[in-house]
Amino acid sequence: MSYFLALSTTHGETVLSQYQALRNDKLLCDIVLVAEGTEFNAHRSLLACASDYFKSMFKNYTKESKASVVHLHMVSATGLGHVLDFIYNSCLSLSLETLPQILETANYLQVVEAVRLCARYLISSLSPESCCCSANVAARFALPDVQKRAEVYIASNLWRLLELGVEETGLMDLNLESLNAVLESDQVPRMKEIAFLSFVLEWLNRDKSRSIHADLVLSHIRYGLIPRADLRTLCSDSRCDLLKTASAQNLISKAMDYHSAEKQQPVLQSTQSTLRNQERQVVAVGGITLHQGTVGVLSAFDPRTKQWRSITECKRIQNHCVCVVGNFLFVLGGEFPELGETPQKVRLTVTSRVERYDPRFNKWSQVASMLNRRAQFSCCVVDDCIFAIGGRCGVESSLPTVEMYDFTTGRWDKVRNLPHKVHGHASAVHNDTIYVSGGKYADQLDISKEMYSFHPLEAQWKRCPPMTIARFGHQMATVGDSIFSFVGMYEPFCDIEYYDPVQTQWQRLRPLLFDRSCYGLAVMDANVYLIGGKKWHNAQEVAAQSAIVYDTTTDIWREVYKLPLPLCGTQCGVLQLMDLPETEGKLDTD
After folding, report:
1. What is the spatial distance between Cα 490 and Cα 219, in angstroms, rounded to a whole number?
2. What count of other Cβ atoms lies within 10 Å of the Cβ of residue 529?
3. Cα–Cα distance between 568 and 565 in angstroms, integer?
4. pTM as predicted
5. How far apart are CA 15 and CA 88, in angstroms?
6. Strand ranges (DSSP E) for 165-228?
7. Going by C-beta distance under 8 Å and a sequence separation of 6 or more, which residues neighbour residue 383?
8. What is the CATH number of domain 1-125?
9. Residue 417 CB-density burial (10 A; 0-12 exposed, 13-18 middle, 19+ buried)
10. What kind of architecture, by CATH, is found in domain 280-576?
């Protein structure tokens, strides 16, 4: 025997609409619900289907099961009216004014789908004017997903809420749990920490009963991001009595110690000195433009927005090195232009100078100079120590020397020399071991394909398997457990290769599709960015005006952004930066 199963898509809606018609005509209604003196006619069978509360109420062993009138003392008439409308027609009329009453009723009567619709409404209607109210409603009615979304929205838009005003946005009425979540957030753009603290103090002082939460709330302030002068002012301000508790004073004291230990700051990082912006950007320092002008600005490239902007002025430099420690950018050595005997003549002078950029306060400061003047050298970081390797101190004089900067002592110390005097080489770090490849040796005519490794504890340079290509002016980058070697100068082909330190062997990869040399290089996750550089155009070598990226997982190259100006010889790092207005910066040139 065969059969066919037929399904109607309209039967359920038809039945529900007929129930609504019966309710409107007060036909077959067998229960009257009363809330705040207002009566509502309804049908037991439908209520029991829509609500576990009513299903339990109408069982034979309850007194309400036989009653014709049931008084609901825990819900409002407005809330009950809206929830009953939803039960009968699946529609819920929502507004921020009536939402608390509807949620209270839907929760009490266990109408789960109505609660879900309220939650969706709260999330979809988040705005500067409503987000604090939404967070408070979500906290009151135990809607964790809604509360989290509202807290993320508040943190991301706190600067805008403060601009609109704390009264207009309801910030002063924000519940304690949500306030703490915002204070703990790492994504609070366009907010200086001193403004954050001012808002928190105003919230605490708005209601005297909140003072018992002061230590907890104030512990989330990142005092290391507040300038030392402002901290001193706060400590002496009579309006900031809440900061005079032992707990707050301890945090402020630690921040003052952090500011005082300026040389050690990169290795003293903690949550208290970490920017509230976890999105990293590629920063570019120095180099020259198409017209051979040296660049005097620190610029940043955001891979998410594909935007390029200038951050601050910096020294004009080329053939230098950069590295990042504790989210501080260090610019080492290089050549800077000086006027010669006549205004038309400019000479390049090799320097040993080291400068540090602090993105927390957008500030440059000078660090102890290297022991040697260096250009066309390499640098890397191992165990929070900076290593400067080889290079040249003049036009032709190459160096075998290696030196290390120790943040605990604030000075440079000699490390075992390289096996050869070399410049134009590259270096990378894997498992605390430094790898140095290529370059031009002073005692050889040709450029080299040799590679050496150095572990600080062993203090010995060891020969490794050589690259398959001799390279000069190239760059190396470590991604995962692979060391990539990218194209250098004077190479007829744009081949790249990677080294496996475990298998101790090299392997060729997909060639670079865009001829390029003298570029800046930065690594973000599995992507390697090449910024600017030199390329051939109409039989001439010119500066490139693009950023290209290599995806190490797919072995694919692509062009990702056009730079504001043609640029080559820049050096790059990756930093968390203070969030700034989204304006495209222009590079400053000679």
Report:
1. 56
2. 23
3. 10
4. 0.87
5. 10
6. none
7. 432, 456
8. 3.30.710.10
9. middle
10. 6 Propeller (2.120)
- C-alpha 300/C-alpha 584 separation (Å) is 10
Nearest to 55 by CA among 65, 42, 63, 70: 65
Going by C-alpha positions, the residue among 544, 545, 588, 571 that lies closest to residue 335 is 571
**490 dihedral zone (left: phi>0; alpha: psi -120 to 50; beta):** left
pLDDT tens sequence across 50-108: 888 898 888 877 777 778 899 999 999 999 999 998 988 888 989 889 999 999 999 99
Rounded CA separation 554/338 (Å): 45
| Confidence grade of residue 367 (pLDDT, cut at 50, 70, 90) | very high
pLDDT in tens, 502-539: 999 999 998 887 788 899 999 999 999 999 998 877 77
Tokens standing for residue 391: 């290079």
Residue whose token pair is 């290795």: 267
Distances (CA, A) of 27 to 19, 20, 300, 352: 9, 10, 71, 94
Question: Which residues have a Cβ under 8 Å from the Cβ of 17 and sit 6 or more positions away?
Answer: 89
Q: What is the DSSP-derived secondary structure letter of residue 511?
A: P
User: Rounded to whole angstroms, how far apart are CA atoms 334 and 394?
Assistant: 11
Q: Are 259 and 358 in contact (CB under 8 A)?
A: no
Q: Would you kindly state where each structural domain of the chain is located, as residue ranges?
A: 1-125, 280-576
